[in-house]
Amino acid sequence: MAKKEYSFYPGCSSQKGASASNYLVSVQSMCEELDVQLNEIPDWNCCAASIGYAEGGELPRLALSARNMALSEQANPGQDIVATCAACWLATKETQERLHDSSDLMQETNDALAAAGLNVKADQTVRHMVEVLIEDFGYDELGKHVKKPLEGMKIAGYVGCQTNRPFGVDGESFENPKYLDKLVETMGAEPVEDYQKKVQCCGGALAFSEPEKSQALIKDIVEAAYDGGAEMIVTPCPVCQMNVEVYQDQINATYGTKFKIPVVYYSTLMSVAYGKNGKEAGLDGQIIAAKKLEEIAAK
Q1: Most buried of the four, 78, 99, 163, 193, by CB within 10 Å?
Q2: CATH number, domain 4-129
Q3: What DSSP assignment string belongs to 207-230?
Q4: Alpha-carbon span 150 to 83, nearest angstrom
Q5: What angle do CA 54, 159, 166 make, to 5 degrees?
Q6: Which of 90-94, 104-108, 159-163 has the lowest mean pLDDT?
Q7: What is the C-alpha to C-alpha distance for residues 80 and 72, in angstroms, rounded to an integer?
Q8: Model-level pTM?
Q9: DSSP letter at 81?
Q10: Over 70: is that where the pLDDT of 54 sits?
């Protein structure tokens, strides 16, 4: 039996061929090293993080996340629900809080779920994977697994907004959370200590509807990383990773900048530091190649 087991909610972006499929690859490699078993919630669905706000109504939005929780309660009772996607974590955690705050909403949601033969109690703890790493392992234990320290690298920890507000990671500042900096340091690299844009929004879905606004935000995020001497950005959020990485060419064309900084997941850093090869760490899914990580992974 694995050291620790969790009820796992992968989220849409982690599916094969989706924008964060390499995130799931690196998470699986990281968990293998840490002896963590992720028990996927069967027949899970979208958390409605985006579509639920497009005039679809409150109850349908909450019912989608509630269905995932109901399925988790059936398949993985007593286990914490863990999400790797910031939006999935936030949507599920919000739904749980809303249902417990309103008996009427809980009843309406269960009435909707009853059509599919389900009922939700929403009593499993909902956590982001970084919470699991910090709270269930701790930095000292995470550091014991490092086989290839990421020495000589300076990395900016871009937390973004969804893993920071409104819930955040317990014990962390909303304005200046340090957990990514500590993870970077634990893996043997140097964090950017004074990263001014670490909790700024990347624009999220504005990248599609109002790209000029989103790209202006992304420009500031990348520029601040360069100003701090970073050669790489690390993040816990699939939307942040995608936006900050893929739009750098368009930003360069608009603003005359020359950005080309890799943006990776914390699990990618950890997988490489834990001795995994480039494919196992998901490095083949990068748009902007993380060459220094590739070199370390190939050793």
Answers
A1: 163
A2: 1.20.1050.140
A3: HHHSHHHHHHHHHHHHHHHHHTT-
A4: 26
A5: 55
A6: 159-163
A7: 9
A8: 0.94
A9: E
A10: no
